[in-house]
Automatic annotation (TrEMBL):
Residues 205-336 form the Alcohol dehydrogenase-like C-terminal domain. The keyword NAD applies. Keywords: Cytoplasm, Metal-binding, NAD, Oxidoreductase, Zinc. It is found in: Cytoplasm. CDD domains: alcohol_DH_plants. Homodimer. Its EC number is 1.1.1.1. Its cofactor is Zn(2+). One of its GO terms (biological process) is formaldehyde catabolic process. Belongs to the zinc-containing alcohol dehydrogenase family. Residues 34-164 form the Alcohol dehydrogenase-like N-terminal domain. It comes from Brassica carinata (Ethiopian mustard). This is alcohol dehydrogenase. InterPro entries: ADH-like_C, ADH-like_N, ADH_Zn_CS, GroES-like_sf, NAD(P)-bd_dom_sf.
Length: 379
């Protein structure tokens, strides 16, 4: 392309300070360096993680910053040493990576790459620690190595999944974070058998994706657990068959579920980050074969407490990161599930806004009105 090796000037939604509306700015995006690619972002979506760090609840505040990590786009140019991607490829940038060389990448059981594992503190690129974004010569910090709230971004090639060019980017962009996290927690980690019962704790986007995984697996009963009864009707579209609101019961929810299921569910997936929900999700699975999977991120001082007999009675507790999917190896296959009509994505997309109105996406999420809001970059 004619822009190869050149600085590109484009629009980006910049966060100058915590909790304040993003500001449309003209930014300069430097060419990709060693093992990097520059991507033209066509569609991006807002994830709760963006909001969490925008509110500066999660880390030492790092501003100005360009947020965004769920997106789809086309490779514009590649840096030195990049051999598996080329200009014109349709791609999903991903907040975690796969270097292909570390023990985790060589393991069939792990996706937690030593080099490119999620890092919320880093504001520059791994190669040299520098930002590829600037305004009037002043650097703007990256976020999760993706920074997709910009018409062009630079990403490490190990964080870029090459996908089927026929896949509609305005739909499959949501595969790059929350959807795969929930879907994989069920399909890859809980692994319910056909006809089994599954409890999903938390019916936000990740929980609904976990329910979608249970539906695809052929679960017989999918029990949704949430404190917000408004979520129950929506969740039926994702295969949820029964609902439990812990506030409506005067006994622990794990006891309620055990009574409903003749001793406990076969599988549970926790998608809230609440330590109470984590303990409940574990204690509600059936002895002998029950498996509980933790997805939500707890507060730093939380401690998981349960009686050891719960484990000795042959219940299994597992954790997962990004649904145990390896970004480059496995995510193209999730896109194919959509292309083969196994996976339904449209029902996750509740809103669409033009890039110029990106702050509306934050409003929808803060009000709890959206599952996923697609932001159309060219608009």
């Amino acid at each position: 392309m004619s822009t190869t090796g050149q600085i590109i000037r484009c629009k980006a939604a910049v966060c100058w300070e915590a909790g304040k509306p993003l500001v449309m700015e003209e930014v300069e995006v430097a060419p990709p360096q060693k093992h990097e690619v520059r991507i033209k972002i066509l569609f991006t979506s807002l994830c709760h993680t963006d909001v969490y760090f925008w509110e500066a609840k999660g880390q030492t505040p790092l501003f100005p910053r360009i947020f965004g990590h769920e997106a789809g786009g086309i490779v514009e140019s590649v840096g030195e040493g990049v051999t598996d991607l080329q200009p014109g490829d349709h791609v999903l940038p991903i907040f975690t990576g796969e270097c292909g060389d570390c023990p985790h990448c060589h393991s069939e059981e792990s996706n937690m790459c030593d080099l490119l594992r999620i890092n919320t503190e880093r504001g520059g690129m791994i190669h040299d620690g520098e930002s590829r974004f600037s305004i009037n010569g002043k650097p703007i910090h990256h976020f999760l190595g993706t920074s997709t709230f910009s018409e062009y971004t630079v990403v490490h090639s190990g964080q870029v999944a090459k996908i089927n060019p026929e896949a509609p980017l305005d739909k499959v962009c949501i595969v790059s974070c929350g959807l795969s996290t929930g879907l994989g927690a069920t399909l890859n980690v809980a692994k319910p058998k056909k006809g089994q019962s599954v409890a999903i704790f938390g019916l936000g986007a990740v929980g609904l994706a976990a329910a979608e995984g249970a539906r695809i697996a052929g679960a017989g009963r999918i029990i949704g657990v949430d404190l917000n009864p408004k979520r129950f009707e929506e969740a039926k579209k994702f295969g949820v068959t029964e609902f439990v609101n812990p506030k409506e019961h005067d006994k622990p929810v794990q006891e309620v579920i055990a009574e409903m299921t003749n001793g406990g569910v076969d599988r549970s997936v926790e998608c809230t980050g609440s330590i109470q929900a984590m303990i409940q999700a574990f204690e509600c699975v059936h002895d002998g074969w029950g498996v509980a999977v933790l997805v939500g991120v707890p507060s730093k001082d939380d401690a998981f407490k349960t009686h050891p007999m719960n484990l000795l009675n042959e219940r299994t507790l597992k954790g997962t990161f990004f649904g145990n999917y390896k970004p480059k190896t496995d995510i193209p296959g999730v896109v194919e599930k959509y292309m083969n009509k196994e996976l339904e994505l449209e029902k996750f997309i509740t809103h669409t806004v033009p890039f110029s109105e990106i702050n509306k996406a934050f409003d929808y999420m803060l009000k709890g009105e959206s599952i996923r809001c697609i932001i159309t970059m060219g608009a």
